[in-house]
Design brief:
single chain, about 260 residues, alpha+beta, 3-stranded antiparallel β-sheet, about 15% strand, globular
Length: about 260
Amino acid sequence: MKSREQFLEEVDANGYCVVEDVLSKREVEALRSALENAIEKEVEYHHGREDYVDYAMVMLCSLYGGPFIEVFDNPGLIEPLEWVLGEGCIVYAYTSSSMPPGGTNFSNRIHVDCPRIIPGYETNMGAMVLLDDFTEGNGGSWLLAGSHRSVEPPAQDDFYARAERLIAPAGSVNFLHPRLWHAGGDNQTDRWRHSVTMNMCRPWMKQRIDIPRAMSHMDLSGYSEQARQKLGFLAQVPASYDEYYLPPDQRKFRQPVE
């Protein structure tokens, strides 16, 4: 694990920081199995078809419970995100990025993950959790170091001439500034290459999907308060006078705002 100072310096200079051995082999295997099951469930939602635009991308991983929620108790994953966004940060989006055998996915365009730039203030931070070894052969991402301060997209030739590949073992996490220009590669192997991706934001921001409402049918009593906080359950806007006037410890929004 890098120190806070090392991590923040690297993210500031390069726009990303790869940390190995954040997840144990057991955590990786559990998440990978859960992801493969979730992909099948998403196909069922789309009437058994595999030709929809987001095929193999799980739109909200936490809906499938288990390892997808338990991972929020991993300090090696959560603490670096809090170093950038504060302890109150919550999930903006929680998806997957899986490269099919002999193919690619929606990430292969040169892109950033956040449209806004506020000098000196970060609203978001990403974390790509590697569930397979990332190699050049299976589509390891292209990352253009230092490009997170650039408003305009790089020319394609310039991007691929200067970008570095994300080559790291399963269990690693690529912490990614959301303004870094990057692109997925092409999977030239005969096996799926899996990862899950979290985009975290400040707790006063709206989530891409209202996660507490989307998960309202689930029993979360077996999960930690930290996991529920990261999913936004402690950052909900009151829906009535009754909720607004509850004692502070019972309110839906009851956490610090950085």
